[in-house]
Specification:
Layout: H1 2-28, H2 30-33, H3 47-69, H4 72-81, H5 83-100, E1 106-109, E2 112-115, H6 118-153, H7 161-176, E3 187-188, E4 191-193, E5 211-214, E6 218-220, E7 224-231, E8 236-243, E9 252-254, E10 259-260, E11 268-270, E12 273-279, E13 285-288, E14 292-298, E15 303-308, E16 311-315
Parallel strand pairs: 6-16
Antiparallel strand pairs: 1-2, 3-4, 4-9, 5-7, 7-12, 8-14, 9-10, 11-12, 13-16, 14-15
Helix pairs in contact: 1-3, 3-4, 4-6, 5-6, 6-7
């Protein structure tokens, strides 16, 4: 039993150290990573969530040090250090279950709805609550085993093989659980595919983002026209704009240069507004500006495109 407790301590140190370093990196570089791993697209994680995660793994490290000694004081430290991880995991389990209760098994892809496959249902609905449920059970089991070993150190040796087997089984399950990832935003060669224009990362419809323009209704030939184009929702930041460009849900966004690949006729962007100025020429009558394509980057760190135009009347 003592060797098993020490093995748990080593495992706690390795796992806790690895994830504590990752969480610490996101804490120090939150403005760059938004709490997301490299190559992962999705909504930015709240800062408080990363702080809780870091404290979680820090207590796991402390518990690992306590279990590694396998002495009375170490076992006490190890047992008490599990309280915060158990409470945190339980809270996240409750939150996860409450969120997933309203989830639908209908997935939106390219504005078309279809039923999720079993794998997609596991990834998007069931994996998270099951992950936290297994984690809570494993931590509680380890706490029970550590308290039992503490009694053994005090001379009350009434060990149980069933508890040992249960602890080893649950620990193996936790160790084998891969880190939870969200691969909801597709990308190709480092460029994001613009296929989530009207949905969030869970495939649920979002409020439409409209393109609006402020322009004069009537102008004369030779007159300088000044037009301002912006989006209806300020949490979608305009990073690039172009015109006369074919864009679809299969187009790619260059995440390094913040541009849509293949769009070369750029427009000037300033203070989250597209500025268009030109001298009016040609014939009289109603005129339409070529289709404008705006590339935005939302608070969720996801790129989307928006199409629109404006018209004006050239008087005699």
């Amino acid at each position: 039993m003592k060797k098993v407790i020490q093995l748990i301590g080593v495992i706690f140190l390795l796992i806790g150290g690895y994830f504590a370093v990752k969480a610490g990196y996101h804490l120090l570089n939150y403005e760059l990573t938004w709490g997301l791993n490299q190559g992962t697209f999705g909504y930015a994680r709240p800062y408080w969530e990363i702080v809780v995660e870091f404290l979680f793994w820090l207590t796991v490290i402390i518990g690992g040090l306590g279990f590694l000694t396998s002495k009375k004081l170490g076992l006490k430290i190890g047992s008490y250090s599990l309280i915060l991880p158990i409470l945190t995991s339980s809270v996240f389990l409750i939150i996860s279950i409450s969120k997933k209760l309203d989830y639908s098994n209908i997935l939106m892809v390219n504005n078309e709805s279809r039923k999720m496959s079993l794998r997609e249902q596991w990834e998007y609905i069931y994996s998270e609550p099951i992950y936290f449920a297994v984690l809570v059970l494993a931590l509680i089991t380890i706490m029970i085993v550590s308290k039992h070993q503490f009694k053994v150190e005090n001379g009350y040796n009434n060990s149980s093989k069933k508890k040992i087997y249960l602890m080893i089984f649950t620990l193996l399950i936790v160790a084998s659980c891969a880190e939870k990832r969200f691969e909801n935003i597709q990308y190709q060669n480092g460029n994001q595919i613009l296929n989530v224009n009207s949905t969030n990362r869970n495939g649920e419809a979002i409020e439409p983002v409209l393109m609006k323009a402020i322009s004069p209704d009537t102008v004369e030939i030779g007159e300088l026209i000044d037009v301002k184009v912006f989006l209806s929702q300020p949490n979608f930041k305009i990073v690039d704009a172009s015109f006369d460009c074919e864009v679809s849900d299969m187009s790619l966004a260059d995440t390094t240069n913040n541009k849509i690949i293949g769009c070369s006729k750029g427009l000037f962007v300033e203070n989250d507004t597209v500025r268009i100025q030109f001298n009016v020429g040609g014939d009289f009558g109603e005129k339409d500006f070529p289709e404008i394509v705006i590339l935005s980057k939302g608070d969720d760190n996801v790129y989307r495109y928006h199409k629109g135009t404006f018209n004006y009347f050239v008087k005699r």
